[in-house]
Amino acid sequence: MKSFYLVLFLLLGITGFAQFNLPVDFESSTVTYILTDFGGNTSLVVTDPTDVTNNVAQSTKLGNAELWAGTTIGNDDGFDTAIPFTALQTRMSVRVWSPDAGIPVRLKVEDSADPGISVETEATTTVAMEWETLEFDFTNEAPNTPELNLANSYDKASIFFNFGTTGAEAGEKTYYWDDVELVPLPDSTVVDVIVNSPDHETLETAVIAAGLADALSGFGPFTVFAPTDAAFAALPAGALDALVADPTGALAQVLLYHVLGAEVLSTSLTDGQMAATLQGADITVTIDGGNVFINDARVTVADIMTDNGVVHVIDAVLLPPAQVDLPITFDDPNVDYNLADFGGNASSIVVDPTDPDNMAGQAIRLADALTFAGTTMGADGLANAIPFTASQTQMRVRVWSPEAGIPVLLKVEDATNPAISVETLASTTAAMEWETLVFDFSNPGPNPQPLNFDNTYDKISIFFNFEAEGAVVGEQTYYWDDVELVPLPDSTVVDIIVNSPDHETLETAVITAGLADALSGVGPFTVFAPTDAAFDALPAGALDALLADPTGALAQVLLYHVLGAEVLSTDLMDGQMAATLQGADITVTIDGGNVFINDAMVTVADLRADNGVVHVIDAVLLPPAQVDLPITFDDPNVNYDLVDFGGNASAIVVDPTDPDNMVGRATKTGNAELWAGTTMGGDGLANAVPFADADTKMTVRVWSPDAGTPIRLKVEDATDPGISVETEATTTVAMAWETLEFDFSNEAANTAPINFANTYDKISIFFNFGTTGADAGEKTYYWDDVEFGAKVTVVDIVVNSPDHETLETAVIQAELADDLSGAGPFTVFAPTDAAFAALPAGALDALLADPTGVLAQILLYHVLGAEVYSTDLADGQSATTLQGEDITVT
Questions:
Q1: Could you tell me the CATH superfamily of domain 626-788?
Q2: CATH 2.60.120.260 fits 323-485, yes or no
Q3: 643: helix, coil or strand?
């Protein structure tokens, strides 16, 4: 008998501690409800404090509880079977009692065999000190937690009260909970109403075709405005077929525009009421004489109730507002302009303050606006991508600003990938009135990401007073309208060239160089058009050479004939200079009524096109050549293009010591940085500096107001400024020219060493490097003859001369070679071999017999301790030699 009771007890024990399943109501007498606490929770099953006939779970979050303190329902083995989630059934409910309203309650389900598989979601209490039922939708997972995956098994649940707050912060608090269950699907649904209605066969077919039947059979609640078969039949011919042909696209969007995500009875509707549909756009309620209209559709049968919502029958199909597209005018009531603000903007569509018949966008930049405050036109993007092309890269917007000079940024991006974007700026020029701003996306900025025609740009945002803080400028109101792609011109400068019998060569060149599309664009352009005769006058082979390099040399020559503005002949002035699209300037000369562009005469002026003007010229303009070594500043056909930085001011001027020579002048101003300098050729050299193992030196002739001035020379890769070498030399004389040698194998401290695998094709010079203008005061320097190679000494000239072998031997014997290879400067009067041969017999041998005595004195009598050019010599002039005695010039 004792054995029987022991077996019975064991069986009851096994049964009592068995795993259990949903629903969990804590009422079963055959189940022991195990609660497993963690993080500072303590839980047990108790009598409901509000109902002595009911058992509930009590969880106390202790004063030392972690923010993630919670309780698992059961033990680590979880439920006996997995929670039966489906695509329609993704919600659980828990009845809870909280001492406070507004408490976040988190519910987590997981795989008991793999805690890495889980889903978490939250609901918030709305009442204090009483029971309420919270629903937890696992398709709306908590931030930074995994999504629900119906292929996974979820057989374990945990509950967390006041999730995210520690016990130390909230104090010890006690919560109660009960009736944990999967929310059952409704017995009757809005879909059932449609399916069972003889007047809604088309709607039934549409809902099924669009794949919405399951979703609308879910929990809801929903309000469906159900158009009848007659309403669908009243659509324009072909409209229904077009919708059905795109079931999950256009058809689904139209159907969702008939559904609200809440249960709204007819008694809840008010005149003028607006409600957001599941499609995203609003419907508007109108009540007129007892009739209820949804937009323009009349409700014919109201309040057909179901377990997941309500159906109202309507007599017309509701068509959602069209997705916004260019041009954006704000005038079409059937377009969903859908303005989306960010950063402290507040935008809306309003009546134009200057025209009551026009609608416009209004952007209020609030007092707390961030620097990037703006508005997107169509939060979901445009219906079609902006059709940018090489010829069509500009957009325009009509704007009204309270002030002139306001920067306005326009940004276009890929609606599906915000990392793909282009932005550009324009500035207002008028205050308190409308003006049209043009935004050229081929000129991006401040973010330099370029326009890429392979990308899709289908979303537009506008930023007024870009980069200004609302706290600084105060609240300001702007208006905008008529956002559009600038249309291509009807007639272009290219049309003029193509239709001219005198410009067949230019037409061929423009097409070959791939410039026809660009010059057919919006412009404006001014083209100086050389005739066929002008091209024929080029040197033999020159035109063929250009055509052989169409997108290089030819394109550069052609762009040197084009200005990026419309300039009529009446706008031209004598001596005027204008930057071409090639980059270099042309110069205008007006002489006796004739107009010249450089040396080419304008023979026909002011041929007008929609995108600019053409002036016919009688010669081909050749752009200045790109700068290259040696840099002498003397060639008028070279574009030396000095680019200053850090407070330098440079120009090419007449050498102050030689009126026949041109040099570079650099003024290091009083506010110059210690690194102020000048680049010779902003785009770099035509050819890289040919450094090699044994060839690492360059020389520059310089004039400094002071001796002991450090001068830095820097070479870099014109395409990659991260690749560079810097070195220094120091002036040894003041107020005089000298040649400095720069050895790039001896790089300046804390700069990169030379690497012969790199390209160095850009040169910058820094006078008095390391000292600011404030410290040194404003000073002016000159430089010239920037050359590759080591400094050439007077000894090099002697050694390399076939007529000075005796002098070479004498200098070496007298041990003067090293001294005369030094910094100098020196002037050497070098007697030839014939001059030495003319000495009396035995004289040369006597000199060589005393090399460091008499020979050295004789040789030093041929050397001055300064650089003296023939142009510096004057009749009767005397000069002291290094030997000490004077020589006389006659």
A1: Galactose-binding domain-like (2.60.120.260)
A2: yes
A3: strand
